[in-house]
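#onboarding

Welcome to the new folks! Below is a worked example of what a typical request in this channel looks like: someone posts a single protein sequence, and someone else replies with the predicted structure as tokens. Don't worry about understanding the tokens yet, we'll cover that in week two.

Example request:
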Amino acid sequence: MTHGWPTSLAGIPTLADRLLSDVVGRLAGSGSDPESTVAAVVEAVAERKGMPQRFRVDGAPVAADPAVRVAVEAVPAEVIEQWGPWLPGLVREGVLSQTDRHRRGVYHTPPALVRKLVAATVSVVAWDDATEVLDPAVGGGAFLLAAAEQLPGDRRSVVARLAGVDVDPLAVATTRAALALWAGVEEEVLERNLWVGDFLDPELMGDRQFAAVVGNPPFLSQLRRSTVRSSAERRRLADRWPGVGRYVDEAAAFALAGADCVAPGGTLTLVQPTSVLAAGDAEPVRERLERSVPLVALWVDEERAFSAAVDTVTLIGRRAPAVATVEVGGCAVPRPAPRTWGPLLAAAHGVPDVGVSSAQRLGDVATITAGFRQHYYGLVGAVNDDQTGRYRLMTSGLIDPLRSRWGQRCCRFAKQVYQTPTVDPMAVAEEIADWLDAQLVPKVMVASQTRVIEAVVDDSGVCVPATPVVSVMPSEGVGLWRVAAVLTSPVATALLVGAASGTALSPGSVRVSASALTELPLPEDHESWEAAARLAKDGAVHECGRMMLRAYGLTDRDDVFRWWWDRNPT
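Example response:
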């Protein structure tokens, strides 16, 4: 089943078209305060449409800025005709300072994108003349305007079936005015269903439910001091959803509260940070959503349609029994377990599904460790540029697939550049001495944040891995080159990219960690595995990758090999 999801935002203008963008920029740049600016836009657009209207915030009339009124009167008629009701919301977002946007997580959704997301929701469950729609963070009313355009019925009855909440009185007032302009009604008609409040307050909505919950909630990372929740807010969320971590983004909490408001058979469509798909702290969120509104489709924002510096996706779920697949970019992807929804994002990025499992994992035949901050800083002061030094410092930048670049490529460590970095064991911090001794053994070292898994063998045990390089120390009888062949295989890269999509520094990167490497399956064709190990020892990356596909029983998967080889730095 295809729901009409855009595969990318190519060709979708940020604010519908250049003329609209210019108009919004001119109106928002007037220099007056936000309320009087929005008031001027509302009143001027209303007059142009022949329906005089006064703008009110929290019931109190707001004086319109005369200069903005004049500016609106100069707006071309075709812009007012097509975008009049949208202008107040666009201008409201435009007048907010960057500090306010960041602090409150307010980033307006482009009209063209809103319309596509709402249309995709309607294609999952058709809306009728009884459908009620809720936006839990109305902003300037974009999602409710797009919903109004999709709902059947006369305009007065349509807006009566729209509901919205926001903590910002100006946002609620702007949305009321925008819908009143669209429907040609008085704002008072909309007061009952559009109100100021905190959607995460469990008392706010009670047991009220809707056929559709749509919107773009605030993105407030809990890792930044400026946007972190208060202790009271953390307790409230923990009481409402036990097990949900304190570091879950505010947008994910909105998804949980939104799911509680979805009626049987209804849909939830919310923009979310990409991290919600795979972050460990968000796993309880995924589990709860899977039980209440299982995913039907996922849209991936490939081109950052929002001005926020964060990658986003849009989740669409339905309160109905889960189906076997989730639609991503027009393709049906097998439904992943809530442990990680990374495979959905991986599918959007073209990562092949290898479908490999095994009775044995890499962690069963090797000890896998990663250094921490204290190990990194414990080496500071013990690193020298010494070509004759015995113990070589290895950073991620010095590791290519099956090849060390030590001495061939400069690296940076502790804000200094080295050509031949070596470690003096007598100069390291005393608290990491035991860790250093444990590292000076034969091992395989794995770089971090690369496009394929890049591993190199240290068969003499003289290399010191600089955090975040991961060390893999095989058990007796397994062999370093067998481990290197597993890590150099297309299968390993596909599995790690799929599992960790949404958590790496850039989309599609391999997020290497000790725990991720531990879970890699081992091949069951030991003869081909041994042949791949010999190729790995010869540095034959291409041939090793091919042989490992045979070892995993994937000799017919040229698509997997091509995907992997295209990403390979060699």
